[in-house]
Amino acid sequence: MSTLANPAKPIRALSSAEKARTPVSMAKTDLGESVVVSRYEDEIWDFWPYIPQNNARDSEKRINWRIEIAPGEFLTDHQHAPLLESTKDFTWSLFIDPIDGRQRPRMATVIAHVVALTPLLRWMASRGMRQFRDIEGRALEYVPIAKINQRTGKPTAKGWHARRLIVLEELYLQREKLADALPTHPWPDESGFTLSGERAKGRTIKTLRIPERTVRQLAEVAINYVTNLAPHILSTRDALEQAVANKEGFQATNIRIPLARELGFEGSRDLSAELSYLRDSCYIVIAMFSGIRDSETLSLKRGCIAHDKADDGIDLIWLHGTIFKTGIKPHKWLVPPIVETAVRVMEWYRQPYAIQIEEQISQFEQQLDMSIPGSTFHKRQLKRLHTARKDRDGLFLGCAPCVGHLVGVLSKSTIHRRLQNFCPHFNILGDDGKYWRLSSHQFRRTYAYFVASAELGDLHYLREHFGHWSIDMTLLYTSGASDAYQTDTDLLTEILRSKTEKQESVLHNYLMTDAPLANGDIMLADLRQTIKTAKNKQSLLQQISSSITLNGTGHSWCIGNAKGTSCGGLCVFEADMCVDCAYGMIGPEHLPVWKEIALQQQTALDMSDLGLPGKTRSQRILNKALDVIAKLEIPQ
DNA sequence: ACGGCTCAGCACTTGTTTCG
DNA sequence: CGAAACAAGTGCTGAGCCGT
């Protein structure tokens, strides 16, 4: 990766000519030579060499200084030259000479600062201010302006007001490093946060968890594509491709369409739509059953699946990838077999694109050889070469129709749009009866919830896919990997959080209501009473919840195992043990299970060939089950 | 062989989660 | 808790595929 020379002189000490030629971003060629990508004087500061994320687009990796600061007027216009220079100075200073006490920001953050600064520039233009120092004494006028969303005229989203105001404070903090800045604090007795009235407290997680019913529908569709439809769709694609090789125009069309119809599709268009849904399904399966983030999914490469044997001989499947949050680190995730299937399908899916991208790479290499270093063409092809090389092993390859058919890893906005379209197309609904609005991060939360459910033993759906975690994988995760790949401990934290939440809600039902109990009433009676009279019920509930560990057996909740007391977990196999156990709780949610148990034992008893010991056992279990059912069915 | 349509990127903005 | 990083959303564009 490229490095920037740390200038010996601070920005304000540079002459205009010196400053103009200063590189702000650089890249390396194959020969190891550094090539300047952007200079201070450029209209666009392109930071592509510094932002590795595959899921970000080029446009998110650069600053375009041609900001429209008034209708028809741009920051790059001649009359705004001083303001442009001040803005560039400030922006560049944030990176090259960070605010005292702060770490050097990532380039993406620097770009975000410019975004937050834009409304200020517009306001300044509208007031005829040409320099930041003109703001002095008038900063408070800007406060209400900064609260308004420029596009809609409505108040800005939470956090943005503060973010826009904080930029002014930073203009003050950097004052000694800049020729033009805020000489005095914009609001001496306040901070951007207090001014905006947006305290950072009380943050809650907003990303929705996909409801169970919706997950089931989604999983059904996606798994069907990945396991059943994939071979047909992909082999048809390949067959068509082969049949039209070396043919063009209508000749190709005349072959393609009848063949597609012959193979069970409505036409060529239908086939490509199905191909896209197949790709969406792979994305969904991978995200849903591995819990990885969007940026991580899109950075997956071919061959990212590895097998491994646990000590007890269980086959483990690892998904290898990269985590970008706070630096680029190789990571691995434990995944169920369906994820491997989806990766294999994508490896097939990407093959034609892989061939194309290799062709593009050699084309770029040739063009680079023949062009003049430093020319715009040379720069552009250098960038395309770097990008293509980075993407050449990518799993989620696609093709951009409007940029010269460049092949590369799909962007997050494409994935996002495709996900939004997925539920309506397959008629997948949320609990409110409307189409579920799917987005990429929901999968992470949903995954954590389902894994927690699997661990608590009350997972109803998709058990075989989430259950792979239940064999106490926590140990495997934390005891660490021996290879270069780290495990994703954040995901583990997420799962634990989900588990705690679930446990709390289970206890909530037991303690806050008078739901009938078949067992556990003695243990809970006191607690129920305490809770009823407690002032702060919620915090008491949390306190109780954090002091015990629930284990789901399917037919009861067991709080005994963790303490090494009671049955030691045998109740998982011998349901009737829980009925009298001091550490068991049996409530309304277990009623169907107990009915099933009763039915089974009755059937067993009806069979004549059951020996006496067997009969005794069945009778014992049946009696207890009937007892449980009777208690749970008492009208409240 | 031509008009409609689709799909993915671009540009810009807002929103959310996690790090130190 | 503030800063940083990551994610989502939307109008627009246009190349070129698709199918009559």
TrEMBL record:
Segments forming domain Tyr recombinase: 256-491
Signal peptide: none
GO terms assigned for molecular function: DNA binding
Keywords: DNA recombination
Transmembrane segments: none
Biological process, per Gene Ontology: DNA integration; DNA recombination
Protein name per UniProt: Phage integrase family protein
